[in-house]
Write a structure and sequence with these properties.
Layout: H1 7-23, H2 26-33, H3 41-49, H4 68-80, H5 87-100, H6 104-111, E1 117-120, E2 143-152, E3 159-165, E4 176-182, E5 188-194, E6 200-210, E7 212-214, H7 221-256, E8 258-259, E9 262-263, H8 268-294, H9 300-329, H10 339-352, H11 357-365, H12 370-373
Parallel strand pairs: 1-3
Antiparallel strand pairs: 2-6, 3-4, 4-7, 5-6, 8-9
Helix pairs in contact: 1-4, 4-7, 4-8, 5-6, 5-7, 7-8, 7-9, 7-10, 8-9, 9-10, 9-11
Length: about 375
């Protein structure tokens, strides 16, 4: 099987990398993070100009109808550049709208870069179980009340995809509905903050806020699973980009750092550790490619199995590569002045977003046929 990028995909990757190298350097990124907004309108405009917002949107709504494999190319470069703009949150929200159908006007605004989206799915008690929902919709009336936590780029979004319970018990998968809620709608209060990796997140309070129903009432769980599996595959790709950059930075450091009159990269024990990092990285890359290939599969069991396997393996690899890189850099590896620390923090956050390694291992073994095959 040929896993090389197509010409168009490589062109997207090259354009993004040139922009990151020229205008989104490590120092430029630090200024953005510490600015009042925490994101850059200029960077967002560049992403729009490069076609990154139109890429995942269907052609009928002014997009390029890019697949998860196309998006993998983009996410790798964003991971390599540690880009903190609300791109992932927006394309994940767009995926909900694509899968549900309708709302063409919203997708057209996303493709044009006029609207940012965020997904308010998690709650304080839910951790990785997105079916653990206390937020209610007024028994199906679309009047949303409750609190959503760690809403990625919720403060920068113009509209939110919100999960709410219409019926059933707290952890049931039946009885969950999805709504599109305007960020400035009456009854919506957003508290924005910066996360440890320099990204932005928010706590969102809903007090009888009116939402527009997505899909069928009480039947939102399959849509949540499908969209978040797609999102998990994108995060896997971003992690590969970050690990690529972190591995390269560590290798360069070992070539230049002198100890006992020689580069420390000449010490065999450190070469072995770099070899172990490389093995973890390449295994993770293979799983990310597989997840991208299966993220849109009509075979839901296969999609769940592959995405969970990839998220678990990449989470393990990210932790190993990050820890080794920090140790090989010595005390400098945890300083704010060195990119290595920022890559490690981003990898740590990717690992716990949309389910950590333990969560996805449990999900993997729960899929039909696992015990029989074992």
């Amino acid at each position: 099987m040929d896993f090389s990028f197509k010409e168009e995909q490589q062109q997207f990757a090259d354009a993004l990398r040139r922009w990151v190298d020229k205008d989104y350097s490590f120092e430029a990124r630090k200024k953005i993070i510490h600015s009042e907004a925490g994101v850059s309108s200029q960077a967002w405009a560049t992403l729009v100009e490069l076609g990154m917002l139109a890429l995942p949107v269907p052609e009928e709504q002014g997009g390029f109808n890019g697949s998860a494999a196309d998006m993998m190319v983009v996410m790798q470069e964003l991971g390599r550049g540690l880009v903190v703009e609300p791109y992932f949150a927006t394309v994940l929200g767009a995926q909900f709208l694509k899968l549900e159908g309708g709302h063409d006007d919203v997708l057209e605004r996303v493709a044009a870069g006029e609207l940012k989206l965020a997904c308010a799915l998690g709650e304080q008690q839910s951790r990785h179980a997105l079916n653990d929902i206390l937020v209610t919709d007024g028994a199906g009336a679309g009047r949303i009340s409750g609190r959503k936590t760690v809403v990625l780029h919720g403060g920068q979004a113009g509209a939110l995809i919100v999960s709410a319970r219409s019926s059933g018990a707290q952890g049931d998968t039946d009885g969950i509905s999805l709504y599109l809620v305007q960020r400035d709608a009456p009854g919506v209060q957003v508290t924005d903050y910066r996360t440890i990796d320099g990204q932005r997140a928010a706590t969102v309070e809903f007090k009888d806020a009116q939402g527009t129903l997505l899909g069928a009432q009480g039947q939102g769980w399959p849509l949540i699973e499908a969209a978040t599996d797609y999102g998990a595959a994108l995060l896997c790709a971003e992690a590969i980009g970050a690990m690529d950059a972190l591995f390269a930075a560590t290798l360069e450091y070992l070539k230049t750092r002198q100890q006992f009159g020689a580069p420390i990269g000449k010490f065999q024990v450190l070469q072995h550790r770099m070899a172990d990092m490389f093995i973890h990285l390449e295994q993770a890359r293979s799983m990310a490619m597989l997840a991208a290939a299966k993220a849109g599969s009509d075979d839901h069991e296969e999609r769940r199995r592959v995405v969970s396997a990839a998220k678990a393996r990449i989470g393990q690899a990210a932790r190993f590569v990050g820890q080794q890189a920090v140790q090989l850099h010595g005390g400098m590896g945890v300083t704010d002045e060195l990119p290595a620390a920022h890559y490690f923090k981003r990898l740590a956050m990717i690992e716990v977003t949309l389910g950590d390694a333990d969560h996805h291992l449990e999900r993997f073994i729960a899929q039909p046929g696992f015990k029989e095959a074992a």
